[in-house]
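User:
I study polymers; will you set down one protein's sequence and backbone structure tokens?

Assistant:
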Amino acid sequence: MSTTFDRKAPAPGATDSGRRGSHAVRWWVLVVLGTAQLMVTLDATVVNIALPAAQHDLGFSDGSRQWVITGYALAFGSLLLLGGRLGDLFGRRTTFVTGLIGFAGASVVGGAATSFDILVAARVAQGLFAALLAPAALSLLSVTFTDPSERPKAFGIFSALSGAGAAVGLLLGGMLTEWTSWRWVMYVNVVFAAVALLGALLLLAKPAITERPSIDIPGTLAVSAGLFAIVYGFAHVESTSWTDPVTLAFLIGGVVLLAVFVWLESRAAHPLLPLRLVLDRTRGGSFLAVFVLGMGMFSIFLFLTYYLEASIGYSPIEAGLAFLPMVAGIVASSTTTPSLLLPRVGPKIVITAGFLVAASGMALLTRLTLDSTYVAHIMPGMILLGLGIGAVMTTAFQGATSGIHHEDSGVASALINTSQQVGGSISTALLTTVASSAATDYLSSHKPSALTAAQAGVESYTATLAWGSGIFVVGAVLSAFLIPNRALAPSEGEPVIAH
């Protein structure tokens, strides 16, 4: 099995031999990066649980409520590639520290918000600084762990935190909202950020930046506007329809702008996203796997939470606890797959099988009813989901950064986050429509009653889970065809200033 680096990057051994800089304290660096990653992924769901309480306190309408979520998604999704490239150009340590400080500051403003406008502005600011922080964390991991024997373990731990963070966020959000105040779902970020910031300042070595190419302004504008339009378009579907003129204008405009972006990148001297990063089959297939994973995971966290709380009467804390078997599955799979399965069967088999295991778990959950019990009907599907998601995530993260030159690791890491974010945005709109149609169909064919209304809710949730299962099957098929079954090359290490 052959492994190659882009741009004639040095062999892994050449970058690791000195054990200098961040690499010398690499396992402590992993703790720092993992803490930051957990904060970002928690924030994707921890706010959802607190929204009703925030709405009651600040007095905004149901129609306005989605902007607390959408504001974050728009800033985060549209600026990720720029954030990743800034890390490559100006130093990942600098962008990581800046992202931490900014995210913590925005969280304080959001927690202290006295109006809806301030809360949304704080969420937009969180998304902006998360767009710096998330790709910097993953790219720092990639350039710090370049030893082929250690890299899988490090990526496994990081992936476990990424996959489990959203589920843990549901539990933490419920606990904080029920026991303290909705404001603490914002303030809690300061605790994570402070720990990560202290570790970053003490442990991360300063990179030795020898050249600093100019930023690709046309490409940046095109991709940022394109991603903004697509995320906004799919968010707009939820409150209107797929045929709404504004929805269509943003979606079509977004696709056109992304096509322009690809054309610009093929001609730019210093492109924002070098196309060679995605044209490699291992990396391209891994980016696509992350995109599909983002689509499928959305139906788990949102609609299964609805089912647990609205259909069978769980409290927010109970709903959060219900996801713990899935968290355990993600952690177990993410930390064992890289060392036990990946070297033996290869990335194609691991990702394909992981999608199929997750699809089977989702399929089990489509059989849920108003009388379902947790141990017999919910937990088995949760465990299978966790095992499958963990296997796909840890392998795809490695594959997407496979053989990356250190000067491109930031934008490659940003593309992973972008794939997941856009996948989630698409599934938000798609599955909300599916749920609405399923509920309407059931209500129209049954006699009106309280039981019928409750059953219609279950039908809507299980319909989205069925689609989620199908999405994972599509991911398995695409991975089987696209991803070559060869060993994953590590990234090139980052030159640092010797102490």
